[in-house]
Design brief:
The structure is a single chain. By secondary structure, the protein is of the alpha/beta class. The chain is built from ten helices and eight strands. The strands form two sheets. Strands 1-2-4-3-5-8 form a six-stranded mixed sheet, sandwiched between helices. Strands 6-7 form a two-stranded parallel ribbon. Helix 3 packs across helix 5 and helix 4 packs parallel to helix 5. It starts with 8 loop residues before the first helix and ends with a helix. The relative contact order is 0.21.
Length: 333
């Protein structure tokens, strides 16, 4: 995933307002949910879902590995969800070429009015353009952390939603976005630069043409790079700007689960990711993303956009922590 650190005036204003809220306060609604039974999130199962994706190889759009993985994701989700649909679309990438993409949407309790979106991107980058060896810059990456980790967690969430059905008044839509990571190589970024809409093409399409006409949801949670060792999850800048109440709610739950060592109450860098078009379409969405302030990779983990973003660098403990947080938020809704 390529994510520029960008500045949006509206987000600056929203953050200045959002930061005035008490970030450590647990809502009365949370306090009253004493008897909710939350299923046990399996880090081992999530890891296997991550590995299954990387076993196909790099999931670069319009390649056999991409199509094979799409079919696998759709088939597995169909075992868990009430409905699954594939949203085919065509988008223009940075160099003017048109590329086919597929957003995959799995819905639970599709008739429920109150809905939550859980999302991640499932494609992987066609360029290892941050690899230490410049000879690898045109080599596709496995995207074990950058893409597959979030999808793996959501696949395990889907399995749990099947085993222990959600409250019938709550609906969940798991959306796996495509074409998030097909922006220009870093050495060609200036040549092709045309704004941040060169990235997150699948979520841009969905935000304009959702899978259900007139679709509305209470909020969304995006997972990105959530499988590395020693993660640092601050409150991403735009997440706090667009939906401070939601960031505060999720981080409060993380603290109550004992995850304060990884879920920092600090304000993180502004990241251009799939949550931006979702928020711009009116759906409050936050980004749970590993940001490393001391990284040589511009705030992102050292494996980011390198050939080292492979299954050997996926940490089950991180998968388990993030997954457990997500299911606790959802089941306590």
């Amino acid at each position: 995933m390529k994510k520029y650190i960008i500045t949006i005036l509206a987000a600056l204003v929203l953050v200045s307002c959002g930061e005035k809220q008490n970030q450590n306060t647990t809502t009365k609604k949370d306090e009253t949910k004493k008897n909710v039974v939350v299923p046990t999130f399996s880090a081992d199962s999530a890891y296997q879902f991550v590995k299954a994706q990387t076993d196909f190889g790099p999931r670069v759009p319009e390649t056999p590995a991409h199509q094979q993985c799409a079919e696998w994701l759709t088939a597995r989700l169909s075992e868990f969800a009430d409905t699954v649909m594939v949203q085919d679309f065509r988008a223009r990438i940075f160099n003017g070429q048109n590329v086919d993409g597929q957003n995959i949407v799995a819905s639970f309790n599709p008739d429920a009015k109150k809905r939550i979106v859980l999302c991640a991107h499932w494609d992987s980058r066609p360029f290892a353009d941050h690899d230490a060896d410049e000879a690898n810059w045109n080599t596709p990456i496995d995207g074990a952390n950058d893409g597959a980790s979030g999808v793996g967690i959501l696949m395990e969430c889907a399995r749990l939603f099947k085993l222990q059905p959600l409250n019938e008044k709550l609906g969940v839509d798991i959306i796996l976005f495509d074409l998030e990571d097909y922006g220009p190589r870093q050495d060609e970024a200036e040549k092709y630069y045309d704004g941040e809409n060169q990235w997150a093409l699948g979520s841009q399409y969905w935000a304009k043409q959702p899978h259900v006409y007139g679709y509305k949801a209470y909020y969304g949670i995006l997972l990105d790079m959530v499988g590395g060792s020693n993660p640092n999850f601050p409150k991403e800048y735009y997440s706090q700007g667009f939906a401070a109440w939601l960031s505060n709610k999720v981080w409060s739950k993380a603290y109550s689960l004992g995850y304060s060592h990884c879920f920092s109450n600090e304000l993180g860098d502004p990241i251009s990711d799939d949550h931006i078009p979702m928020n711009q379409a009116g759906l409050p969405t936050i980004d749970i993303i590993d940001l490393q302030p001391n990284s040589s990779n511009g705030s992102f983990p050292e494996t980011w956009h390198t050939l080292n973003d492979n299954i050997s660098n996926i940490d089950k403990e991180t998968l388990g922590m993030v997954g457990n947080l997500v299911v606790n938020v959802v089941y306590n809704e």
